[in-house]
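Service request form, structural biology core

Requester: graduate student, group of Dr. S.
Request type: structure prediction, single chain
Budget code: on file
Notes: please return the result as structure tokens.

Sequence provided:
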Amino acid sequence: MSAFDAHYRNDDSGAPAHAPTMLLKAVLLAYSQGMVSSRSIERACRDNVLFIALTGDAKPHFTTIADFVSRSRGAIATVFAQVLTLLDGEGLIGRQMFAIDGVKLPSNASKHRSGRHSVGVARQYCGQTGKTDNCRVAVSLSLATDSNSLPLAYQLYLPAEWTDDPQRCAAVGVPASVGFLTKNQIAVAQIRAAVAAGVPRGVVLGDAAYGDDSMLRDALSTQDLIYALGVRPLTAVWWGKHQPATPPPPATGGGRPRVRVCRDAAHRPISVRALAQALPARAYRTITWRQGSAEPLSGRFARVRVVAAHDDRDRAPEWLVIEWPGGDAEPLRYWLSTLPKATTFKALVGTIKGRWRIERDYLELKQELGLGHYEGRNWRGFHHHASLCIAAYGFLTLERLRGSKKNRARFKAPAVPEGFRPRGAGADAAPSTALDRDRTLSSRPPDRTTVGAMSLLRHGASEHQTSLVTQ
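Core staff response, request fulfilled:
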């Protein structure tokens, strides 16, 4: 929390500044309940008993809350990293899956405002609305297990129409160092940063928007990362009788070794769709990969060893997994994976289907915690909003697991430090020897048995008249 202290040093003039720890706790609690407006947080600090207890009845103004979120710069990101480290230390995330995803967020402001001036907004397909509309797209990298996931990196994608207009970017606070990057280039940079930071490695998962990029797959292989990525039906592979031509003998006199395979009219690769249709029916098996909420989840899959043929580079064999539901005219999905050859069929399908966890968690982040409710225009505010939402989601994940019987023994309440004195308690306050939360209070003070006469100061009232007044 020391990163916040520089902006909250009290001097001899003016009212005392609110403690940054109090503001951060109030904001995180609000975000964990889907409350993202600074005005709604201010009302909660006045009316909600949880916020009153958490803030010590401080009642911060909404401008103070908004200023705290917008001016914290990297301090909020540091807190997010600490939450992530805590969850990883407890074994709640990471070490199994490394998922990349494009999070599409609709623009909630009016069309007049969102169509031009909100950072990153452009006409593009939005999965949340199911149509082409004004929306933002953020690229994220998540750490996940079979039971939990949490985003590790989160960056807004800027279309070329934005990066080609420096004045437009400067108006919303986009740093001058931010240039145009495709979504896949952002994903590769996030993975490289995570590997350089020593984040535990896992199998990289992603849909066809990322897996169809051979440069991204090659970049992952260069970093010795295993992947299981979706690909599109026209992806070309070498398989079976569809093999490269025999290369000519090397030229005399040396030279660089050949790095590309030979392709001619008689030696051409096959698309994964044509490969799936060429497989016999016995190649497809029904695989159950996990237990659903109502029944086991299963599907009809086939797998074969292939070599990716893009750019005719000499590559190592990898798995091609095909999902073709019974009764459908064509296969539903395709994946390429560098999982070891000895991987069982069930484990291979289970790993590929691990993306459901990330998709479910992002749905909860957008709908329950307000990740998709940001209506501001600023680049920094967008990322601060996302950092707070993700940190709040990490807190909820920790509390959810703390309450389960399986994990209750792992999370022990910290001991009260010696000499601890609650805020507002006097220096000579003595601790209570017992506390009975079910004990009712007496309806009248213990030192008085009757209520004395109360004068109403009304003209004509008797001097000895006793009256009861309610207010």
